[in-house]
Amino acid sequence: MNILVYDGPGVSPHCLHQTLRTLRTVLGTRYSVQKVGAAALGHEPWEPTAALLVVPGGRDKPYQEALHPAANARIRAYVAAGGRYLGLCAGGYYAGASVEFELGTPLEVHEPRELGFFPGVVRGGVYPGFVYDSEAGARAVPLQLEPGPREALADTVGPSPSSIHIYYNGGGAFVDADQLAGVHVLARYPEGEPAIIMTRVGQGKALLSGVHPEFDGLLLNEQDPVYADTALVAKLRACNRARLALFGHLMREMDLTVEAEHSALPPLTPIWLTGYTTAAVDAIKQRLQSARHASDRTIEGEHDRFAIYDAQEAIPSSPASMEEDSDEKPLLSLVLPSSSYSSSADAMPSGPFSLAAYYKHWQAARSLVEQLRAGAFGAVVMYSETVSSTQTLLEKNDALTRHLPDGTLCVATRQVSGRGRGGNAWVSPTGSLSFSMILRQPINTGLPSPVLVQYLVALAVVDAVRSKPGYEDMPLRLKWPNDIYASIADPAHSDAAPRPVKLGGILVNSSFQAGQFTLVIGCGVNVDNRAPTTSINWLVAMHNEAHGTQLAPFTVEEMLALIVTRLDSFYRQFLQSGFHSLLDLYYQYWLHSGQVVTLADQGAVRARILGITPDYGLLETVAVDVNGAELSPRQLYTLQPDGNSFDMMHNMISNKRS
């Protein structure tokens, strides 16, 4: 599930950064914390996968201008239907029925607001000295906790006082919150005015704060002369553990699952560049040795710097910054073993992912398809336990990847900023498979379009499972254009249609240079992690329970080996015979045959899905009436795979907006 953090006109970059960091620290990898813009909130189908919408600090009035009217209506409906809203400072003002800010000053705002989650006035600033786009009026407020939060902090950090210092800069108080039905006060300013409240909105909840419990004092410069309170940073740092406990309690109040231990984002780990054969390893080593700087053994990419080490050397941890908005390139350790995986297995890292197990599964999977050949997908693997994003590593570092063969994989156990289609993020909790692969295709009028590669990858994921003997009936399906879904039946309602649940996604980024396309394929699949949606192994377990079978669960190593060998086979068939040779298998697995949808950007036309074109993968639909009969004359609509999003919850296809 996604935690969406608003990033649009009026949002403070400083507040946005602090919000993203604390959410990721407290919630861990169970949720995908990502930014979302005003256009997406107004026009994209974000609601079904959103566990929480967060509006951070900044300026409330530009929020109203950017989000009125479509996004506001969507946000209100989302919360009323059971969603969750977190408003911090300006986001708290924005969710009141009306705003009274700095009355009688040049900064005055006295206006109603559309969301109205708090059915009263949000009035501020509570303290004087606020200056837009400045920390000059900031202070550490000794927040007074109500019994619920106070007891939660005592359970987490031991006996604690009834107040903790929290960052404040221009926030409001929730006037008469104690007298309003459905509003629960969680914390107060020292003078007694409500500072943090939670309110019921239909079936959902809104938690609003005039202070900044997301602000980490460790990220502030205590020497900054802008702070009028010279002890501000010290006060915040002294309360940081209690602050994280408070934020975790607030998230639990919103029914979210919180990490048992709050810790900083993990450091990046060394990357092992391995090969199935010694010849492959030697060829790569020779190319990289000639490409690195002689003075400091580094290769400088667009996004990262790589320090090259032999496996026999002492390998330092990667001293890499995990800050998303850092301008400094991370320095990553890239380790080259002396020979093939089998000869250097003892030197390879041990951990959640076993390179040795992967290569054994890969060899077995290849023997079912063909003998090893030069350039086989998956014969070279880059592995690291923790990376920023496998997709970014391959896409944004041409100085390194130009020396790697086609079919090279980049695999990580943990991605802290994994990338998905359309700016979405793919979280990588333990048990999930996250990898990227580089592929080059020369421009040639006789070759099929590379835009279809995303379909091949999705097909390879599903077929990797369902082509295995005994696993043919696993309810894995293809959702257009590039998602993997499971069709899950409700045993309590046998007559109900199976519920589609996402468990994987595909992303393909392409560039064109020197007469060829370079494709970086990204794939994330829930193999053994039930959260945040479901997993392949849960489907296997349910199948065993229903049919009395004893099918073995998949490991991530086996799953990866099966996917890349299937993709290798499909890609060569695709180059020789085109995508039409794979259409029958594709339709066997996909969700959409005969499905009636609404084309939002064609005047809400009802249309029945016919299929996809084998040349460019366009979705073909035909207009129908309310009874499903084709209109006369026949009206055909074709839709681009990369320009549209498919809302499965509402059977609606619309143009994708940023």
From TrEMBL:
Query: Which branch of life, at top level?
Result: Eukaryota
**GO cellular component assignments:** cytoplasm
Signal peptide range equals: none
Tell me a Gene Ontology molecular-function term this record carries.
biotin--[biotin carboxyl-carrier protein] ligase activity
The UniProt record lists the BPL/LPL catalytic domain at 366-575
User: Could you say which protein family the record assigns here?
Assistant: Belongs to the biotin--protein ligase family.
Protein name per Swiss-Prot or TrEMBL: Biotin-protein ligase
